[in-house]
Design brief:
Length: about 170
């Protein structure tokens, strides 16, 4: 049994499965932090509240959690047998929507959403009024959340589906 752990193929499989699990679990942290940030931004914007230190921290941690998920995703992308097959057999693989989804669509949409979260967080910090800070955070984070919802392979998704937890 110990020799199995020394086998490079077995180690790669364990790493891939671990990354898949972490990426699947971490999505919930991204969704929760984004949803809570949007709630706070909406509440702050419509109630004319002050953009507090905790609002700034929440905005920062939401972007940080999204960036951690991005690193997990890029690492998973580089190790995925599905992605390796997709790029090795691109002309054939692009005909399969499931392979196309994970090879290009999922990655592109998720990268776009992380960029939007980062830009929204950055612009918001530089605004002079609290209302403007909440507004920018609200707009950018909502757009990012919509893109993320489209790009997640939900069990009910017509694009590609995976279980809620892997």
């Amino acid at each position: 049994m110990f020799l199995l752990y020394l086998c490079p193929v077995h180690k790669n499989l364990i790493m891939y499965q671990s990354l898949t699990f972490l990426h699947s679990i971490f999505r919930w942290l991204v969704l929760l932090s984004l949803a809570y940030s949007i709630f706070r931004a909406c509440k702050g914007y419509f109630s004319n509240k002050a953009f507090s230190k905790s609002d700034n921290s929440l905005q920062h941690w939401t972007a940080t959690i999204a960036h951690i998920q991005l690193v997990l995703g890029i690492t998973l992308y580089s190790q995925s047998p599905i992605i390796k097959y997709f790029w090795k057999n691109f002309n054939e693989a692009k005909e399969s929507f499931d392979l196309l989804f994970f090879g290009l669509i999922h990655m592109s949409l998720m990268l776009l959403s992380i960029v939007l979260i980062t830009i929204g967080s950055s612009i918001s910090k530089r605004k002079s009024t609290d209302k403007e800070k909440f507004k920018i955070m609200l707009i950018y984070f909502i757009i990012a959340l919509i893109i993320i919802f489209i790009a997640i392979p939900w069990p009910f998704s017509p694009l590609a589906n995976r279980p809620y937890f892997r």
